Design the sequence.
DNA sequence: TATTGTTATACTCTATAACTATA
DNA sequence: TATAGTTATAGAGTATAACAATA
């Protein structure tokens, strides 16, 4: 017989999947990403890593490849492969950084800038159509809460490992 | 020269990736899922689809395979493959539903129930360690906001397609 | 020695279609 | 004809290691 829980204690013994935050977040994020990808994938022949690369180069101008990786939360392998495809499509240029010849500096071509100019309003419109659910106050609150979870997971990247290891 | 935006209008022309909700949600969800997976993957030799299947069977008792799919947001192919591995590990049983011989009824074995009992407190603890960021009021607010986004995306699954197609 | 980037490999996830058996 | 489940296949995402060039 399960014992009734006191109100100030959390039930750690049972779990209903569609009330479980990690599952809900993952499901929600996947739905959102699929909705956004529907806008840029077929129409512009862009994969997600390519779209991310174009997004940061479009808003920041030329950047070294490793900074693209940091800004897009992609490792250097994914960046490298995205750049290979973007180069083939004539959407970016790459040149060696003369001050450190290990570094590659990436920049959008006019073609890449066109893609950026075309895609951004479309994906922003998708974001708007989703966030239209919220009032301005709710948006701000959601933004804050998401930001604090991001920070927390950054500060304790081993939140699970601590539980896993001992 | 970019024109200054009036305060009640949204800038659809530019996009900074780490302020863009779909990207932030995806990044956050991935981090959370990786943290949770760190708890069940190596220690219990569970993939995400297997863990989800065990989670719903553990909280609901025996279920037809198609309901497992609905509850876990997985299609029948993923369920089928998860079940194949769970069967091989002796963690579930499957039998044909006598009232509709197309249906497969799944149930945790004692071994599967043991896994469920062992894993749930661990993954709940991860959830707790993340949500510890919030006060009770903030949790309730976050829960509500997430729920409304879920509902919205359910109601307008073609939110992006509408923009994509015309 | 450490860092930047490339290439190779493998494993998982996702989506789709083809197939079976039942209804 | 439609539904439940299985199998097969291909594309994308993810993680890792090995490597070359440079610092």
Sequence:
């Amino acid at each position: 017989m399960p014992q009734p829980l006191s109100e100030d204690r959390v039930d750690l013994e049972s779990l209903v999947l569609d009330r479980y935050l990690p599952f809900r977040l993952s499901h929600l994020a996947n739905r959102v990403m699929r909705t956004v990808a529907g806008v840029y994938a077929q129409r512009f022949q862009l994969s997600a890593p390519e779209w991310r690369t174009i997004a940061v180069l479009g808003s920041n101008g030329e950047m070294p490849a490793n900074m693209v990786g940091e800004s897009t939360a992609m490792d250097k392998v994914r960046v490298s492969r995205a750049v290979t495809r973007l180069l083939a499509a004539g959407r970016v240029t790459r040149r060696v950084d003369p001050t450190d010849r290990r570094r590659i500096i990436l920049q959008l071509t006019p073609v890449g800038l066109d893609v950026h100019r075309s895609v951004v309003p479309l994906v922003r419109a998708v974001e708007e159509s989703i966030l239209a659910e919220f009032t301005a106050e709710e948006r701000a609150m959601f933004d804050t809460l998401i930001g604090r979870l991001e920070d927390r997971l950054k500060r304790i990247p081993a939140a699970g490992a601590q539980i896993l290891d001992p």
About this structure: The longest helix of chain B spans residues 21-44.
